């Protein structure tokens, strides 16, 4: 089975993605660590960045598992193959494999390419022969294959036949517009192989996700005997994207039971997925199949007690095999069992302390009824449990705070916060400015605490989310704030709830600093 | 075909989603506008919020297309069905339909439920009979059906048989762990119906997305003859989520050619999808099949000219039928064309005013680069266009404002806003309190304007949403505020963006009042 990744070529067509050459090299290294067989790096000649990528790849890129592939198209109509500059650009990359597209839908040949059916077949034949003669392995992408085959199966078959006749190693059937369903893919492959008289193992599959079925369509092709699958990391690609290569590979390996990655590679999946998201500058999808942070997260209280006993009954695969892990969410639906389980995950054993477990459960339920939510705020939850266990005390007591936001006559908007606190018996007043009310309070509080807790300087607030809980009272609604804080080693999330957004933020802020201090052990 | 939505029940299990009762009512109205046949509203008795939802739904919710469904479980083991409080809670909702789950995997019966196979069958029989005797339509969710059927097909079949024997209208096969592939779904359905001797049209399907195949699995079931599909808006749900009901319905209607929604409903899909995302406070997925903003966006330079001539060759369906539109990225013309189109939608003809269209396009582009978004803020967009047309002037000019939030020594949190404005030549200073900084500013501004614009008293802010756009600078991030305002006749949404949440809110607030005044014509 050939695992062919096109993150750097077709995946780079995604709205919102723009890789530098260095990005592309980094992505290629990651894909190689994931163990794919082929990495399509780009379209040399057509995109200057891709030409540069292949040049630098020759010097800098050492791949352990994958072969690099240059992408392109058949020669232009009416041009000799050796004189087509884009064909030459592919050849010049010196990659051992080339993959180029041909039109296989007669309507595209006539209306978009504006050439004859015969010339298009000659273009396929000439270009495949040229690369074979030059010692390259050739994969031919039949663009718009499935639409073309449904419209005119004879012509689409001729294109595939021309490619095989000229020595192509694989003919890749592309659902370019992404409109197929799995049963349609299976039927077309059965029909095509009967017409061609070839084994489906010589075919490849390339699916777009416009019906939400790209992964399933790819798997349907594999079940029909196809032995070459194309996809992109996290399904990045034009419109709704391509088949997600992570889900495709995990399904082939874990569901169809065929080992297609080198040993030890499947466990790299979560790491590689998130690292590529980082490079693409796209927030990882929490709910992505197999690799999402919530892919194995259980919320329903009814399951929690059973999950504790028998996790295999509630996970379709063991999360560890793809480098993920199981997460238990603390929510209003949770009973005591999931609170105990969650605490154990955080290293706090409540099993021997039933009165603490009961009191934490009551507190969580009451607070969640008021709008608090601990499912994304592990640090606030941990503080609550450690507080109930008597392990944590607050590093300071608040006397009062005040924050002022002014839009001045000159148009400047300024925020100023003042806090009055007691720290180890000392009364401290501090004032600071910020670019918003919460930032100003954060600065003022850190200033006030800095003498006693200099380690607070290393903490940084990295994310701030606000959610209004009750939509029917306008600005008088209940506000929930989630704060993400980091100390470079780790990241934690805290929560605050109040009808006043500033007070809600204050709660989350105090938890964030308290948690940070509990980690650094003064 | 029954289209059964469980956004408010199973979809509410999604990590990061927490609906208020008002949210749930709003989502139910939207789903009804989309034309689903059944809306599963929640689990009465188990969740206080859901009990409250059904109570308020009886009084407030008028549904045009959908029937409301209460969810629950079979009676507990060893308890008489009439005495099971959760069964009674379902009955008390008075919904015409109930849908409850039963264990159909023998391992779950024995290890999680800890009862006998026989008692589990009796629980199914008793509970179905009870609701049928009480005049309710019954759908039975067979939890973990596919895993159970693969492990012990005889027992899973018995559970379905018991449900039908007691009068269930549909037995819904659930892929609770989400580990199935389409071909496995088809095979299990074929095998089950042969064993049961019933038509597959009496079965339902409920898929989770853990293999990335939930939509395809659902479609495979429909192709196997199933006539009841469950899904959630945007695929929200636990772990990787449920089958996205939008993709499922679009595939059934546009790919399988079966009309399953009332006339005019499919075109509501994009609007309903985005509105539910707003309520869930989850950024809409740009790349979501059918409904994503980029679902029909073409980037590839090679296609652009051909697409213009022959769009049908490059779109798997016409985007208009699902309420979406085709976007060609990076072409300036597309921007202006869609602004003209949008303006026409609002009754403003820019076709004869190319300089105005160009200036609005430039402003929108620049502001969107800064983080503004007019997609959900029609009123702010209309003000922008009417401003460019010279039709609207601001009702006042701001000199300055100031807002103070204090957490006092006694624990009270108070907010006070002061605005200094000029209205029709008069300088006015007004101060007001509020339960948060934005509410205080809103009150102060209305007080200042009330003498000249008494009609402002009838406006009410009905929703307030905050989204942080840039996650990397903590509380210094850019903040986008959406305000919803109503004058009882209509509702409008305005937007404000600034690094300071108060200033962002101020922009949205000023737009909200300006728009309200432009409607009442002083």
TrEMBL record, chains A, B:
Q: Which family does it belong to?
A: Belongs to the alpha-IPM synthase/homocitrate synthase family.
Q: Which residues form the Pyruvate carboxyltransferase domain?
A: 1-270
Supply the CDD domains for this chain.
DRE_TIM_LeuA3 (cd07941)
Q: In which pathway does it act?
A: Amino-acid biosynthesis; L-isoleucine biosynthesis; 2-oxobutanoate from pyruvate: step 1/3
According to its UniProt entry, one GO biological process term is: isoleucine biosynthetic process
Q: Which GO terms describe its molecular function?
A: (R)-citramalate synthase activity; 2-isopropylmalate synthase activity
* Keywords carried by this UniProt record: Acyltransferase, Amino-acid biosynthesis, Branched-chain amino acid biosynthesis, Isoleucine biosynthesis, Transferase
Per the UniProt entry, what species is this protein from, by scientific name?
Allocatelliglobosispora scoriae
Protein name, as recorded:
Citramalate synthase
Annotated catalysed reactions: pyruvate + acetyl-CoA + H2O = (3R)-citramalate + CoA + H(+)
| PROSITE patterns in the cross-refs | AIPM_HOMOCIT_SYNTH_1, PYR_CT
Question: What are the EC numbers?
Answer: 2.3.3.21
């Amino acid at each position: 089975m050939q695992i062919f990744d096109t993150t750097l070529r077709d995946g780079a067509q995604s709205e919102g993605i723009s890789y530098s050459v260095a990005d592309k090299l980094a992505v290629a290294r990651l894909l190689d660590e994931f163990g794919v067989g082929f990495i399509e790096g780009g379209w040399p000649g057509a995109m200057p960045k891709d030409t540069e990528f292949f040049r630098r790849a020759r010097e800098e890129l050492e791949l352990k598992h994958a072969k690099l592939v240059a992408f392109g198209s058949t020669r232009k109509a009416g041009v000799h193959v050796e004189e087509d500059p884009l064909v030459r650009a592919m050849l010049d990359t010196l990659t051992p494999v080339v993959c180029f597209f041909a039109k296989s839908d007669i309507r595209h040949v006539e209306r978009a390419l504006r050439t004859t059916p015969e010339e298009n077949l000659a273009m396929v034949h000439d270009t495949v022969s040229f690369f074979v003669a030059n010692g390259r392995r050739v994969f031919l992408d039949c663009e718009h294959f499935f639409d073309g085959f449904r419209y005119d199966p004879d012509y689409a078959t001729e294109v595939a036949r021309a490619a095989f006749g000229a020595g192509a190693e694989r003919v890749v059937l592309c659902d370019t517009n992404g409109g197929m369903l799995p049963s349609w893919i299976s039927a077309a492959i059965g029909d095509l192989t009967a017409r061609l008289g070839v084994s489906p193992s010589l075919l490849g599959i390339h699916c777009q996700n416009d019906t939400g079925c790209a992964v399933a369509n790819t798997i349907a092709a594999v079940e029909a005997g196809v032995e070459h699958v194309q996809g992109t990391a996290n399904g990045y690609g034009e419109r709704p994207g391509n088949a997600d290569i992570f889900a495709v590979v995990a399904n082939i390996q874990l569901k169809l039971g065929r080992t297609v990655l080198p040993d030890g590679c499947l466990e790299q999946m979560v790491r590689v997925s998130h690292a590529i998201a980082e490079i693409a500058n796209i927030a990882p999808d929490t709910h992505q199949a197999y690799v999402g942070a919530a892919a194995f997260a259980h919320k329903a209280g009814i399951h929690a007690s059973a999950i504790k006993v028998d996790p295999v009954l509630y996970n379709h695969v063991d999360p560890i095999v793809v480098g993920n892990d199981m997460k238990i969410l603390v929510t209003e639906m949770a009973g005591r069992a999931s609170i105990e389980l969650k605490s154990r995950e955080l290293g706090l054993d409540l099993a021997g302390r039933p009165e603490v477990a009961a009191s934490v459960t009551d507190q969580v339920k009451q607070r969640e009824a008021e709008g608090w939510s601990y499912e994304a705020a592990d640090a606030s939850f941990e503080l609550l449990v450690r507080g109930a266990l008597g392990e944590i005390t607050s590093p300071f007591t608040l006397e009062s705070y005040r924050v002022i936001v002014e839009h001045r006559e000159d148009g400047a908007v300024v925020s100023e916060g003042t806090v009055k606190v007691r720290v180890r018996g000392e009364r401290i007043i501090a004032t600071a400015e910020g670019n918003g009310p919460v930032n100003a309070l954060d600065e003022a509080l850190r200033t006030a605490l800095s003498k006693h807790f200099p380690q607070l300087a290393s903490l940084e607030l990295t994310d701030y989310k606000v959610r209004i809980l009750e939509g029917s009272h306008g600005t008088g609604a209940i506000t929930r704030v989630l704060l993400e804080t980091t100390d470079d080693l780790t990241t934690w999330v805290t929560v605050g709830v109040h009808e006043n957004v500033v007070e809600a933020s204050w709660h989350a802020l105090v938890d964030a600093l308290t948690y940070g201090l509990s980690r650094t052990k003064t």
